[in-house]
Each structure stands twice: as structure tokens, then as C-alpha cells.
Amino acid sequence: MLYKLFIKIFLAAAMLFSSVLLGIIYISDPYALFHRPLWHKDLMYDNLRIQDYGLIKYEDFDGIILGSSMLENSSADEVSQKIGGQWVNLSFSSARFYEKFSVLNFALRNKKLRGVIMSLDSYHFAQLHDTKETFDSELYADSLIAKFRIYFTDRGIASVCGKKKHFMAKDLNAPLDWRNSPQHIRRFGGFANWIKYYHQDEQAKDSLDKLKSVRNPEKYIYSDYRKIVDNELMPLFRHKDTMFYLLIPPYSALFWAWELDNFDEMMAPVAYLIEQTKDLPNVKIYWLYDEDFVFDIARYKDLTHYDAGINTLMTEAIRNGSNIINAGNYQSKIARFKHKINHFDISDFTAQAQKIF
To answer: Each residue of 273-282: pLDDT tens digit?
Structure first.
């Protein structure tokens, strides 16, 4: 009958259209998910949660820096010079442990890595998979469906059509660094700059709004940190030929004084990780809270984010084998820092914050 013919024609047309569309996506492939870039050789997608796949697959390196915004300013070139090897920085903001696990697990399957530098962000030990909408772990499991699915978004279709709005020059040194951004630089130099840009900058506003309370009234739940360590960190360390340099980001003393009621809970994952890795020669953990700069608020643009010079200090700690926290010293180091925080007077900071309305 005629309607059956129409249905067959419609289905055939739909299949032809789908095949052509998928073919265009495969050939164009601006994110380098299927093959090496054809027309975007000098560009990279600014969403590293996706772009890291292609960089790992098709770029040459033997060391990875992977963290949150705490490592975005770390220079891979500097690490290569001071530690040796050929490093790249694949960090992206708010990187959760399950995201870093997915990326690194994929990298370790596809590359012979001499080293990995990773951040151990305190907040994220209390956070499970809450960024699923922005990260597709199936991509790093090499799912063909996930690769195509990523292109079926407004950005993906625009990229396939040649739009370069969300692309940037290929940079493996520190692609998402913010060290030279005027918006960020202007808040360094002292607490007065946080106040100055309170109405113009969300991070300054967030930090000062928090400091209107002398202590953080929110209690964090860290009940799952053992799962994170056991499932999203420890399996990586089985790669015995790869050195893992784990950096505990040195948040400001002002942050820890405000978080004093959560201090013990936030240190528990560190202690657990140290105990779990104490017999692993390929894992080193670094603690910079013994350094005076933590109390120098001029080196922070908000409660947690430090200047790029501190990223250099972390690289030098790895090179020099200094600032290591381990099973033999972590209890004394944590206790000593807590004592300092207990005696760090933040009343002047909170008084200034309370004046803002």
C-alpha cells in the first residue's frame, strides 16, 4: 500500500541522513576523538574534560599534571625542566577524583608515563559524582556511542560546522592558566583588594560572605572518603613504573581558621591515604603548610587560590624531595598546623567582611 511505501522512503531517508551526519562528524572530528586532527592541528577545545581524550591519544609526552584550578597555573615546561621528561598540564577547574581517575586510567592504558602530578583537593573528598552533566566517563572508557554523543550538543554541532568560538591555540604547558588574567590578578596583593572587588567578582564576594561568620556553620560529611581513596586513587598506583606526586593544595590560613570546626574531618582523608600508600615507593605526598606563605593573605585572591609562584614552589618541592608528608610525620605536621590555626587571629578580617552590605 502507498503509506507503507512512504514509511520505507522515510526510513531510508532518515538512515541516509544519519549516515551522512555521522560521517561528517567522524571526518571533521574537531575534538580529535576518532583520529588525529585534520583541520584543527594548531587548536584545541577549551573544555579539557573532553579535549583531554584527544591530547592523551595523539600528543607525545610522558608526564601529566592533572588537578583542579589549584594546578591550572602549574607550568608543564617548568616541570619538564626541573624534574625531567616531557610533561603536559591537563588540569581543569573543580576536577573531582572520579574525573581524574577516568582521565588517568585512560592515559595509563595508552601511554608509558614516567610521572603524574595530581592535586588532593580537600573539598572533593566529601563530594562524589556531582558533575556528571559536564563529564562523560564513558568517553574515557573508549565508548564509540559516547564519542558521537558529545557532538550532539549546540557546541558540538557548531564545532563540526567549523565554528571556532570555543577553541584556543594548542597549549600543553598550562592551557587553562589564569595567572595573567586581569580579573584574577587584581585581587592579589592584600585583603583590601578582596573588598575592593566585592561587587564585581563572584569569588571575592563568596569569600567575604563566608567570612561574615567567624566559623563555617556548615558541617561537611566525609563518610565516603575511604571509597574515593580505595576506588579512585589506589587502583592508579598499581602502575609501578609511574611515579605519583600528590600535592595537597596549600589553601590560605584564613580558609582553615574559618573551617576550624571541620579541620579534623578534612584531614582524615589525608591520614587515611598516607596509611594506605605508606608501603608504595611510587607514591609521594607533599605538604606545604609548614611554609610561612600560607599566612600571607597577599598571595591569595580568595580563601583558597594562590599565586603562580606557589605552583613553582610545589614543583621545586618535588624536585628537591622536600615538604614530604608520610606515615612517620603526618600526625605531628597536622597537629602543628592545627595549633597555628588555633592561634591565628582572624577577627580583623571578619570585622572588615561584616561591614560589607
So the answer is: 999 999 999 9
N- to C-terminal Cα distance for the chain? 74
329 grid coordinates: 610525620
Find the helix or strand (DSSP H, E) in which 151 lies.
helix 144-151
- Give the integer Cα–Cα distance in Å for 312 and 176: 16
253 CB-contact burial (10 Å; exposed 0-12 / middle 13-18 / buried 19+): buried
Per-residue pLDDT reduced to its tens digit, 54-104? 999 999 999 999 999 999 999 999 999 999 999 999 999 999 999 999 999
- Domain made up of 63-132+172-354: CATH architecture: 3-Layer(aba) Sandwich (3.40)
Contacts of 356 (CB under 8 A, 6+ apart): 195, 198, 208, 212
Residue 245: what residue type? Y
* Contact call for residues 125 and 269 (beta carbons, < 8 A): yes
Q: Grid coordinates standing for 325?
A: 608528608
What are the E-state strand segments in 21-80? 43-45, 63-66
**Alpha-carbon separation of residue 106 from 110, 120, 142, 313, 322 (angstroms):** 6, 19, 8, 29, 30
Q: Tell how strand 243-248 and strand 283-287 pair up.
A: parallel
| Total-model pTM | 0.93
Q: CB under 8 Å to 210, separation ≥6 — which residues?
A: 216, 258, 303
What whole-number distance in Å separates Cα of residue 323 and Cα of residue 69?
21
51 neighbors 181 (Cβ within 8 angstroms): no
Measured CA to CA, the distance from residue 293 to residue 49 in angstroms comes to: 31
Cα 327 to chain center, whole Å? 26
Distance, CA of 56 to CA of 140 (rounded, Å): 10
Overall size of the chain counted in residues: 357
Helices and strands counted in the chain (H then E): 15, 7
Q: Report the amino acid identity of residue 305.
A: H
Q: How many alpha carbons fall within 13 Å on the CB side of residue 351?
A: 4
The answer to whether the beta carbons of residues 210 and 216 sit under 8 Å apart is yes
